[in-house]
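Researcher: Let's run the pair from yesterday's discussion. Sequence first, then tokens, for each.
Model: Starting with the first of the pair.
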Amino acid sequence: MAWSMEGQLFETCNCDLICPCSAYPFAGADYDRCLTVYGFRIDSGQIEGVDIAGTIMAVAFDAPKYFLEGNWRVGLLIDAAASDEQAAKLTALLSGELGGPVAALSGMIGENLGVQRVPMQYSVESGTRVLTVGDGRLAITELVPTGEKNGPPARLTAKFNPATAAGLSDGQITMCKAETGSHLDVFGIEFRPKVGLWAHFSLAG
């Protein structure tokens, strides 16, 4: 097996309430551009024999309202704490060079925005998850329909979410609301999310 990894997937986007693409196959985003950040905390894994456990990475992309139109603008973010060897392997994986679900989406990318090595942290406290990327901070809190403190969060079997369709999550996603003030400015794009989700993932190729 050339590579394998598992951990947590973290997503934020600029849609208003819930990502339409999570509920219906390739439904259009709420706005003309979908500005999304997918973060990955890797709990265990290896790429061509290189241990990548404990690393953090993210994919930032700017896509048209309807994903199938292609011409996505995509940039990669790798934790500065990762070794050069780990960073090289993660970059190869996320660029689609090693095959797998990421490679299946490569035809949708119209512009490669490059790779940035930046300090990154991922933390979980109760129902809130925070991904920091350099000076940027993205925070999402689980939606609890009942309004009860520590109540069960809203979950969705999202067969059509891009992450699920590409095999990047197990399809059981927890719906979240982005914290006011969440922001990330990278690759000349301002990310100001309103919603989010998290899920477990397990991938191999």
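Model: Moving on to the second of the pair.
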Amino acid sequence: MGARTDADETAIVLDAVRYPSLLRLVPDGTAFEDNPVGVLWRYRIDLTSGVVDETPVGEDGIELPRINEQWTGRPYRYLYATEQPTPW
């Protein structure tokens, strides 16, 4: 969804939707409801040590996350996404 360096440029901060397992798609669409819910996670990659910290940002299922493109590469506060309600 978005990535940037932290304030002192020693790490990359990356936000992305993460799934507990690979999506299962069947050509006739019958397994769509069985797909896992995607949740927003933040990853912090330390450029010196290579250590990756991962933190869930929320619990709600979301899809198609976006930020205002004017904030690309910079810290942002808001995102736009569609909610993926559960249970089906």
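Researcher: Give me one sentence on the second I can quote.
Model: The radius of gyration is 15 Å.
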